[in-house]
Amino acid sequence: QVQLVESGGGLVQPGGSLRLSCVVSGSISGFAFMDWYRQAPGKQRELVARSTSGGSKNYADFVKGRFTISKDNAKNTVWLQMNSLKPEDTGVYYCHAKVLDPVVYDYWGQGTQVTVSS
Q1: Digit-coded pLDDT (tens) for 56-83
Q2: Alpha-carbon distances of 33 from 11, 52, 53, 85, 90, rounded to whole Å
Q3: Fewest CB atoms less than 10 Å from the CB: which of 24, 61, 84, 117?
């Protein structure tokens, strides 16, 4: 059973930075997508950043230029570097992995809380 474990969340002031990590208990090279999602209180979970097996990276408009997703297949780890944080970035951040072949399957981490407040 694949497990995703996030870490790196916490309380940070506006304008600050955090780096989230997602360690996968298995190879990540077989995942079509490795993503970071977030969910703010009372809101739906939303995609923040995506890294594909082909090397593409995609970002939600609200984090472009501030967040960077990266991964290391050898370390089975995905990171989300978050800079210039804003109060509206507050929420629980989830690591997500998607398999497309031979069947479609989604794996989720337990989430890590990010709070941006002065």
Answers
A1: 999 999 999 999 999 999 999 999 999 9
A2: 28, 5, 6, 25, 24
A3: 61
